[in-house]
Design a protein that fits this description.
By secondary structure, this protein is an alpha+beta fold. The protein is built from 3 helices and 8 strands; from the N terminus they run ββββαββαββα. The protein is globular, with a radius of gyration of 16 Å.
């Protein structure tokens, strides 16, 4: 029987199990869920409330993650910066879940701006908005592995 539920992307996902995952000196909650898509588990890295209006999360969010002892890995695409992963958490999830699809998501007030197509510099927040950084682990095999499979 589920312990609770998470509400993401307009879906209430029952939590089937929860655990704390130790990464270095920190522990992060990992929730195993039942979802209508391939989502298997969700891990929240941080949740903060914006103290002021910001035109961009490009400088602010990496700073917040670094203050927590984490190292954000950013990727530039078409002149915009995207959060690709956060170390050492990403490596720990790869060890735990192998070749399954592992992705990082930034939510503002529980919503994913542009369905994940917005870069950090395109994300705007108002004072009081809640910013979350989460990892989503899916049952699917990652795209990197699919490219290596020969049919």
């Amino acid at each position: 029987m589920p312990h609770d539920e998470l509400s993401l992307w307009g879906e209430k996902m029952p939590i089937t199990a929860s655990e704390l995952v130790r990464v270095g000196e920190k522990e992060f909650p990992l929730h195993h869920v039942q979802a209508s898509d391939e989502t298997r588990a969700i891990m929240r890295l941080c949740m903060i409330q914006a103290e002021e209006r910001r035109k961009s999360l490009a400088a602010y969010l990496p700073q917040v993650l670094r203050e927590q002892g984490l190292e954000p890995c950013l990727r530039s695409r078409s002149g915009h910066g995207f959060l690709e992963s956060v170390e050492p958490v990403h490596q720990k999830l790869v060890e735990m879940f192998g070749e399954q699809s592992i992705g990082i998501i930034v939510l503002i007030n529980g919503e994913e701006p542009g369905q994940g197509k917005h870069s950090l510099d395109e994300m705007r927040v108002e004072q009081g908005d809640v910013i979350q950084v989460i990892y989503r682990i899916a049952w699917a095999i990652s795209d990197k592995i699919k490219k290596r499979i020969v049919i």
